[in-house]
Amino acid sequence: MTLLRLHEVTKEFVTRGQGGLLAPKAAFTAVDQVSFEVSLGETLAIVGESGSGKSTTARIAARLLDPTRGTVEFEGQDITRATGKSLARFRNDVQVVFQDPFSSLNPRYTVERIVTAPLSYQGIAPPGGRRAFARELMERVGLNPDHSQRYPSQFSGGQAQRIGIARALAVNPKLVICDEAVSALDVSIQAQVIRLLLRLQRESGFSYIFIAHDLAVVRQIAQRVAVMNKGRIVELGTRDQIFDQPRDEYTKTLLAAVP
Ligand code: ADP
Ligand code: MG
Predict the structure, then answer these.
(1) CB 169, CB 200: distance < 8 Å
(2) Best residue among 49, 55, 100, 234 to mutate for probing ligand 1, ranked by most atoms within 8 Å of CB
(3) C-alpha 201 to ligand 1 mean position (Å)
(4) How many other C-beta atoms are found inside a 10 Å radius of the C-beta of residue 34?
(5) E strands of the chain, at which residues?
């Protein structure tokens, strides 16, 4: 079943060239006619160099940013311009985990408050009470539940990323978008967080859009891979096809750079 569908999504940013206010405005195309689908339970990776448009695509897919053209569909509904209840439902079903856990976790909140916040915003009482629910979420992501009253700064980078993942899981999402979620972590910690992401998916059956510039990481987690270059998807295929029989010249160059 198709969960999410982007259809010919384009994002132009209007910028001014050198010369400050007097310079003419120019439109820069960050994402160029991008189309893909994500099925329920699968992991689609988006790979490409820095600046290729991955995060912009992710932000459009999560409706954190409006596309200039094109449509975003979720469970068969066009939600490109949705507002009100349907947008709220979508914002619940699609969660994002960002690269830098510390900048996406409120430093003045305890872990308990952070991971239960998505429910509080919706006015939903955490099942079993806030404390018990936070402890359960912490256990699910491999954090010590006795640390629920600590603050983000008291955790390591890998642990902080687990807090971000716990927060995403609090609302039972159907799709979790990981935008370079493990890129800033040490290799051994990366492997642990990837194992966690895989286990959570096995347990709950949601989908991932997994964005990374590191192909070795992508190989461990994705079923399908989209390769982006200069705002376009130049190739999209199964993991084995992309890694073993790349067709596009740019994909071949990317693969050649993997040690
Ligand atoms: P990636 O995540 O693949 O590194 P991004 O989606 O962040 O790429 O960026 C794609 C391009 O769009 C880059 O050239 C970036 O500088 C540009 N860009 C991203 N956001 C904005 C913005 N808000 N205004 C202007 N240009 C932007
Ligand atoms: Mg990015």
Answers:
(1) yes
(2) 55
(3) 29
(4) 25
(5) 2-16, 25-39, 43-47, 69-74, 77-78, 94-97, 175-179, 207-212, 224-229, 232-238
Nearest ligand 1 atom to alpha carbon 53: 6
Report how far residue 9's alpha carbon sits from residue 31's, in angstroms, rounded to the nearest whole number: 7
Q: What is the residue with the minimal CA distance to atom 24 of ligand 1?
A: 13
Length of the chain: 259
Give strand pairing partners of 44.
Answer: 209, 224
CA of residue 229 to ligand 1 center, whole Å: 12
pLDDT of residue 218: 95
- For residue 255, give the nearest of 230, 236, 234, 227 by alpha carbon: 227
Residue 147 DSSP class: G
pLDDT surpassing 90 at residue 171: yes
The two three-digit tokens of residue 50, written as one number:
């820095």
Share above pLDDT 90 across residues of the chain, in percent, rounded to a whole number: 87
pLDDT at 19 over 80: no
How far apart (Å, rounded) are the C-alpha atoms in residues 223 and 241? 10
